[in-house]
Amino acid sequence: MTSDDRAFHQLTSEWFQESCKRKYSYRFSWLGRPIIQYPQDVMAMQEIVWKVRPDLIVETGIAHGGSLIFHASLLELMGGDGQVIGIDIDIRQHNRAEIERHPMFKRIRLLEGSSTDPAVVQRIYDAAKGKERALVILDSHHTHAHVLQEMQLYSPLVGPGSYLIVMDTVVEHLPKAMFPDRPWGPGDNPKTAVHQFLRTNKRFVIDDEMNRKLMITAAPDGYLKCVEE
């Protein structure tokens, strides 16, 4: 890394912290639903989905549903019968209503419950039967323990060439004061879970090319590519 690269990284880090204070990611929507993602990560997702061409996308964490709509719209463009399954422990009624009335809902299935509940996990595995290629995105409760458990539970769904994507790994690089009312923070977050997971699971590697390309991302080291059966 050159000195110019280091300077660029520092500027990026400072900008990202300021953007968090201003809730920058809340400014964007996809086809009418708030997506709560950085535009760079939205771009990364479409590149990955187009390359992988999954017939099942599993997302933990629904919020307003913009991400579900986004992935469903990509599957719609690609044709076929691809489906998105969204899991959340609490799907707010007004969000459910807006998602269910959206034109892309025809490709979406909502599951309410904990992403680590064995009954919920079994329903996902049942839905994956007969599917050729699954892509998994983890964006729910951001503690180390929860994310690590999600990774262990859902990573077997992902085959070679596809991705296990862990969002909000950037928490590791933000000041603890930014999370006064959250159980996660530096030292206990999705990124610490990713690195513990990778120490024992050799099927996945960090997509370093994505890291270098994005710079501004909520998921540094979070784009994991499956390289083995």
Task: Describe the model.
The chain has 229 residues and is of the alpha/beta class. The longest helix has 19 residues, at 3-21. The strands form 2 sheets. A 7-stranded mixed sheet has the order 5-4-3-6-7-9-8, sandwiched between helices. The chain has a two-stranded antiparallel ribbon with strand order 1-2. 41% of the residues are buried. It has a single domain, classed as Vaccinia Virus protein VP39 (Rossmann fold, 3-Layer(aba) Sandwich). It is built from 8 helices and 9 strands. Helix 2 (39-52) runs parallel beside helix 3 (66-78) and helix 6 packs across helix 7. Helix 4 links the parallel strand 4 (83-88) and strand 5 (108-112). The protein has helices at residues 3-21, 39-52, 66-78, 93-100, 118-128, 144-154, 190-200, 208-214; strands at residues 29-30, 33-34, 56-60, 83-88, 108-112, 134-138, 163-166, 204-206, 223-226.
